[in-house]
Design a protein that fits this description.
With 62 residues, the chain is an alpha+beta fold. It is built from 1 helix and 4 strands, in the order ββββα. It has a 4-stranded antiparallel β-sheet with strand order 1-2-3-4. The N and C termini lie far apart (33 Å). This is DUF397 domain-containing protein.
Length: 62
């Protein structure tokens, strides 16, 4: 999967100390990619936009 044009952004839940951060790229057609910000060249999970919305909706915020 080619993610070279992905625009990554950190989760709003990420702390400012560079801790456990998740980055999301949702600018790719038909695809949402998720990666660990501590390993930007490592693997990324990919979701369909519908699946990503379902995941975010079902994830507790507290």
């Amino acid at each position: 999967m080619d993610l070279t044009h992905a625009t990554w952004r950190k989760s709003s839940r990420s702390n400012s100390n560079g801790g456990a951060c998740v980055e999301v790229a949702d600018n790719l057609p038909g695809l949402v990619a998720v990666r660990d910000s501590k390993d930007p060249t490592g693997p990324a999970l990919t979701f369909t936009p519908t699946s990503w919305r379902a995941f975010v909706t079902a994830t507790p915020t507290d």
